[in-house]
UniProtKB/TrEMBL annotation:
One Pfam family linked to the record: GGDEF_2
Protein name: Transcriptional regulator
Source taxon at top rank: Bacteria
Domain PucR C-terminal helix-turn-helix, first and last residues per copy: 355-409
Species classification: Bacteria, Bacillati, Actinomycetota, Actinomycetes, Mycobacteriales
Similarity field: Belongs to the CdaR family.
């Protein structure tokens, strides 16, 4: 079978002066024979390279792409030695090998490219040995022909694989970007209650909509470089809560939407430990809910908690919707919430965080001094002393405004001003 037409004299205008004329002549003869292989040898080449991965042999499209790449690569290599005998052969990044690589990447078989080229190289070198032994060459010339072309073939395959690998990385990147965009669109359709085939959506997302869902939003201020740690941190959070098949959506460069499957109890301490290494990353978590409606509701809760944290410029890293629902509602209109906090707490709003935490813990423990002291790891007398100070700073008696004071303290707790108060406490 002929792979190339009769060579023209212009091919021979560039030669390597280090090679003897007889050696150059022998290389040209061998290259010409290599351009005219038998159908049987081509079939052997295809069988050997396709056998690099069993999945190739069972797919006619893949097998055809490998075969086309084999022939084009052979023509390029042999023609180069016809044109410039013994000279280095430039990498071949023509349409055939690039198409083969693209198809393999899209089928998840990109790693097979290396084996295909190396096996093809070995089969072609064996044929070169057969060709050389039929040429009128002396033993010295025979050895030179074998060594020179073997090295040339190895360098050629190295260069070609390097070029194809670069193209494959671009293909991987494009595929990944396309998959991320498609995933977000599907999720947005579900959240917006657009008509969606749920079974098909589940296949594309790799996530089932049945069962319970716990949604989370993980983000970082876009001005911070720490957003580059988002994906790693997101994976670590999923591991920490025991979610083996989470759904992660790239909502923005610095924001990830996440759904944990069938996780009914998220350990806040474990989540906080994960985020310790990335102090500028934050997470808001919704409640667990079932089915498609639960998928939506938990996500909306996580968004509500996130919006509250951003609105209040909170420096706290973890917010559970259950814990902040009341504060989120109260602080939707900052002017009203500020008035409520000021009128309820009076001078106590400017007290240090130690006093505020003490009073809030006391109220949460149903105004039981013994339990509150135990929770705070302080002596009961210390607690009572702090409560006396609080009573003097509050504009109205605590026993008449307990609920209002607790709500105001919770709102203040999530405010960014809490961070400044904590710094003042430490300085004191």
């Amino acid at each position: 079978m002929t792979l190339h037409s009769t060579p023209t004299t212009e091919w021979f205008s560039v030669v390597d002066s280090r090679l003897a004329p007889q050696t150059r002549d022998l290389i040209r003869q061998g290259a010409w024979i290599a351009l005219n292989p038998s159908p049987e040898w081509l079939a052997e080449l295809d069988r050997a390279t396709v056998a690099a991965n069993p999945a190739l042999a069972g797919d006619p499209t893949l097998a055809a792409a490998v075969s086309s790449s084999n022939r084009a690569t052979l023509v390029h290599f042999a023609t180069s030695h016809l044109r410039d005998p013994g000279a280095p052969v430039t990498a071949y990044l023509g349409p055939e090998p690039l198409r083969m690589a693209r198809v393999l990447v899209r089928r998840g078989l990109g790693a097979s490219v290396h084996d295909i080229f190396r096996i093809g190289q070995n089969v072609a070198l064996q044929r070169w040995i057969d060709i050389v032994f039929d040429l009128p060459a002396t033993p010295y010339e025979l050895r030179e022909l074998l060594n020179l072309v073997a090295k040339s073939a190895n360098d050629f395959v190295d260069a070609t694989l390097a070029g194809i690998s670069r193209q494959m990385k671009l293909e991987h990147s494009e595929l990944a970007q396309g998959a991320l965009i498609e995933r977000r669109k599907i999720v947005e359709f579900i959240l917006a209650r657009e008509p969606v085939n749920h079974k098909r959506a589940e296949v594309r997302l790799g996530y089932t909509l049945a069962g319970s869902h716990t949604a989370a939003v993980i983000w970082c201020d876009e001005s911070d470089d720490e957003y580059r740690m988002l994906d790693r941190t997101t994976a670590a959070v999923c591991d920490a809560v025991g979610s083996t098949q989470p759904l992660t959506v790239l909502a923005a460069e610095a924001t990830r939407w996440v759904w944990f499957k069938d996780i009914t109890d998220v350990d806040s301490d474990q989540v906080r430990r994960v985020l310790e290494e990335t102090p500028k990353l934050r997470i808001a978590i919704g409640t667990s809910a079932r089915g498609v409606e639960g998928f939506r509701r938990s996500h909306q809760q996580a968004l509500s908690a996130q919006h509250m944290m951003v609105r209040l410029r909170s420096r706290q890293q973890v917010a559970f919707f259950d814990d902040v629902q009341m504060v989120a509602l109260l602080t939707q209109k900052p002017d009203y919430s500020d008035d409520f906090i000021t009128s309820t707490l009076g001078a106590f709003a400017s007290a240090g965080s130690v006093l505020r935490d003490t009073l809030l813990t006391y109220i949460n423990e149903q105004c039981n001094a013994a339990r509150a002291a135990q929770q705070l790891y302080i002596h009961r007398n210390t607690l009572l002393s702090r409560l006396d100070t609080a009573q003097r700073l509050l504009p109205r008696p605590l026993d008449r405004t307990t609920v209002r004071v607790a709500v105001a303290l919770e709102a203040l707790k999530w405010s960014g001003s809490q961070e400044q108060d904590l710094s003042n406490d430490n300085m004191a």
